[in-house]
Amino acid sequence: MLTYILRRLLYSIPVLIAASFLIFMAVSAMGDPLAELELNPLASEETIANVREKKHLDDPLVVQYGYWVKDAVTNGFGTPLLTEEPIWNDLKRVIPHTLALVLAAELIALLVGVSIGIYSAIRQYSLFDYSATTLSFLGFAMPVFWLALMLQIAFTNLFLAWNVRIFYTSGLSSVDPGTGIHWLLDRAQHLAIPVMVLAVLQIAIYSRYMRASLLEVVNSDYVRTARAKGLHENKVTMRHAVRNALIPVVTLSALSFGALIGGAVITETIFQLDGMGNYFIQNLFNQDVYPIMAWLMITATMIILFNLVADILYGVLDPRVRYD
Amino acid sequence: MRRFTLTAMAVVGLVAMVFAAGGSAGTSQKPKQGGTVVFAAEQEPPCLNTALAGCNNTWTSWTAGTATRGLYILKPNFSAVPDIADGEGQIVKRNPFTLRMKIKQKAVWSDGVPVTGKDVAFTWRTFINPRNDVASRSGYDSIKSVSGTGKTVTVVFKQPFAPWKQLWANPLYPAHALTGTDFNTVWNESFKNKSGQNISNGPFVLQSYVKGQSITMVRNPRWWGPHKPYLDKVTFVFRTNTDTEIQAIRGGEVDVIYPQPQLQLADLKGQSGLKVVSNAGTTLEHIDFNAQLKGGMPLLRAPWFRQAISYSIDRTAMVKQLFRTLNPTLTPLQNLTYANSQKGLYKPHFEAYKYNPAKVTQIMQKHNCTKGGDGIWSCGGVKASIKFGTTSGNRLRELALEIMQAQAKNAGFQFVPDSEPSRLFFPRVSDGNYHMALFAWVGSGDPYGQTDIYGCGGESNWKGYCSNKVTKLLRDSDKELNPTRRAALVNTADAIMALNVPTLPLYQKPTYLVHKTKIRGIRDNPTNQGPTDNMEDWWVS
Question: CB–CB of A170 and B238 under 8 A?
Answer without folding.
Answer: no
